[in-house]
Amino acid sequence: MSESTRTAKMAVAVAIMPIAVLTNPTPAAATAPRYTEYVALGDSWSADATGSRISTEFTPATCAQSAHNYPKQVAAALSIPVFRDATCGGARTQHMTTPQGTNPPQFDRLTATTDLVTLGIGGNDAELSKTVSTCLTTDPAATPCLEAMVSNGVDRMSEAIAAAAPGVRATITGIRERSPHARIVLLDYFQGVSATGGCFPRIPISAADAIWLSDKLRELHLMLARTAADSGVDFVDTYTSSGGHDACQAPGIRWAEGLIPYSDTPIGLAVPFHPNQLGADYQARRVLETLES
Question: Which residues have CB under 8 Å from 266's CB, separation 6+?
């Protein structure tokens, strides 16, 4: 073979090599996770609090954190290698920086390398969950919630929801200070209460109080949406597309349980007026859709 022929063949081989490299990427490059360190923060609606599938991997049993809540589903779906779930039933914004019983401050799980944070908080700051229990009645005409919370045209729950906004904004600021490179995703609360008047006596809340509660959930949704926009973080709207899946619906359709602490999805003890597994699955889908957008 002449020297010129060998030179020509080598030139062709060198020219082809980059094409082979480009068309056969390494498996590691193709499957590298988009996020490498995910921290979930929030209250019982992010813990997807349960009475029968409690996980103590990340928090004490008193947090009632579900073994299949939406943060764990998101972490698994995205194959995130480092994941910490600080969500805890009853949490308020103050518990981001202070202990909640034996659960350390939720911010303790954040680091400078955290690159994804989901946050579901604000309902307990407004005491909306606590207020639900005051609506219970044996009289379908009674309105204990309206009588307790609305006076002379002033709705104290509406005021409490508005007053909770600064705490949520401060929480977002605190996340940025500790994890400056993190994508922050704020969730709202889906429609767990019927907007059409409830289902007395199965859930012993009068139609008027059920409608009022539904209105307050919408106000909470709007407050959180504004807070996300003002703070420049992503917002996961679980409220808008959740109609028809409230606690009054049949098993398999409802995404939240009613007064009876029992769920068919999955079968076992449940936390009243909180997401069941179908609700947690819905939250996970909405978070993943937002992250893909």
Answer: 52, 53, 276, 277
pTM of the predicted structure, to 2 decimals: 0.88
Q: Which residues contact 215 (CB under 8 A, 6 or more apart)?
A: none
Rounded CA-CA distance 114/187 in Å is: 18
Contacts of residue 248, Cβ cutoff 8 Å, sequence gap at least 6: 194, 198, 199, 202, 203, 254, 258
Q: What is the mean pLDDT of residues 201-221?
A: 97
Chain centroid to Cα 49, Å, comes to 12
Q: What tokens does 284 get?
A: 């996970």
pLDDT, tens digit, 9 for 90 and up, residues 70-114: 999 999 999 999 999 999 999 999 999 999 999 999 999 999 999
Q: Encoding tokens for residue 21?
A: 């490299």
The span from the CA of 165 to the CA of 220, in Å, is 9
Residues 6+ apart with CB under 8 A from 194: 210, 214, 246, 247, 248
pLDDT of 216 above 90: yes
Residue 96: which of 208, 10, 175 has the closest Cα?
175
